[in-house]
Amino acid sequence: MRENNRPGYPRTARVVEVDRGDPSLHIHRFEVRTDDIEPNTLLSEHSTEQEALDAKHRYEDPALED
Questions:
Q1: Distance of CA 5 to the CA centre of its chain
Q2: Which helix (H) or strand (E) holds 5?
Q3: Which domains can be identified in the chain, with CATH numbers?
């Protein structure tokens, strides 16, 4: 049995672009989501796509497991 409640590997995530607030302001955020825990679970939210892709990589990389 796992000592923590994190899902085992392989883990998969996806980056989803979402619009926030007034559409005329064009405020975009990037969410990292997974179905490994429960369907469409939000893992994190970022202001840039690159930050979200970095977070996705960290979530999926088994070499980074504690």
A1: 17
A2: none
A3: 14-64 (3.30.730.30)
